[in-house]
Write a structure and sequence with these properties.
It contains eight helices and two strands, in the order αβαααβαααα.
Length: 131
């Protein structure tokens, strides 16, 4: 969150997973559509344009999984590569993202929004891990 806060203070409107949760739940459908189109080799840049139409920066997931495609879509963009100790990153992800996914799997039995998260998040991991 620190990079998002810093970019926002510099005047950017920064996209982060929290945006999906708090304001743009319809973006879940767009990220799922992006993954499907990309995996099928179909044009997908229009989806990226739609996702980021009101934003001037992006950090963290889900954007981080799609940085190459975002840079291809917006070739004048700048990329900040932040690095982190892999074990510390995994422990953080385990306590946040993985826990949230577990809760969404349970809630997904009753709540459509949670069901969409259980579709989107694994597609991100597959992309990041090359599966």
């Amino acid at each position: 969150m620190s990079l998002k806060v810093a970019l926002d203070k510099l005047g950017y409107k920064t996209y982060h997973m929290i945006e999906i949760i708090e304001h743009n739940s319809h973006h879940l459908d767009l990220w799922i559509e992006l993954a499907e189109l990309h995996s099928q080799g179909k044009p997908y840049k229009h989806v990226i344009h739609t996702i980021f139409e009101n934003y001037t920066a992006a950090v963290d997931f889900p954007a981080a999984a799609w940085w190459k495609e975002i840079l291809e879509t917006f070739p004048n963009s700048k990329v900040i590569l932040s690095t982190r100790d892999p074990e510390r990153w995994y422990n953080s992800a385990k306590e946040t993202i993985f826990q949230a996914l577990w809760h969404h799997r349970i809630l997904g039995l009753f709540v459509p929004l949670s069901r969409k998260f259980t579709v989107m998040v694994p597609s991100l991991w597959d992309k990041v891990l090359g599966k």
